[in-house]
Design brief:
- This protein is 32% helix and 21% strand.
- Strands 1-2-3-7-5 form a 5-stranded mixed sheet, sandwiched between helices. The protein has a two-stranded parallel sheet with strand order 4-6.
- Helix 1 packs parallel to helix 3.
- The radius of gyration is 15 Å and the shape is globular.
Length: 148
């Protein structure tokens, strides 16, 4: 399924996600696909070493689900970033909801650029913009910021 592709994008459910992502990463490596992008949730993962995680700030105020979800995203990030795939990134969308494409956003290396939510359509638009210059996000995250 990945043979001959320029990029493989991992957008899978959370059931056994780390194991599934690792299988996808192995396939990308085996078929010499030059680029791989993983999906995560804004705020759960950071590419800043020793950054405070959201679950560390809020504790169990939002429930007990946040810590294991964060750890899952971190494990996928670690598997991807430590792989031999030449170009790897992780997209970090904010909260998403149904809505219109506004074209009001652009990719950013700052995953905390002040965007707390946007439409699925805007996330897809920013993601496509990020893919156009994927090398600049190598081994880092693609966040979303308002257009300047």
């Amino acid at each position: 399924a990945v043979l001959g592709q320029d990029v493989v994008i991992e957008v899978i459910d959370n059931t056994d996600r780390v194991a599934k992502a690792e299988l996808i990463i192995q396939a990308v490596i085996a078929e010499n696909v030059p680029s791989f992008v993983a999906l995560e949730v804004q705020g759960s993962v950071s590419d800043v070493p020793d950054a405070l995680r959201v679950y560390e700030e809020v504790g169990d105020k939002w429930g007990t689900w946040l810590k294991p979800v964060t750890e899952m995203h971190l494990a996928v990030q670690q598997a991807a970033f430590s792989s031999t795939i030449p170009t790897v990134a992780q997209i970090a969308p904010p909260g998403m909801s149904a809505g219109e494409l506004t074209k009001s956003f652009e990719p950013s290396k700052d995953v905390n650029a002040g965007v707390n939510g946007c439409s699925y359509e805007d996330v897809a638009d920013v993601f496509l913009q990020g893919l156009e210059n994927l090398e600049q996000y190598n081994r880092s995250m693609i966040g979303i910021r308002p257009k300047a």
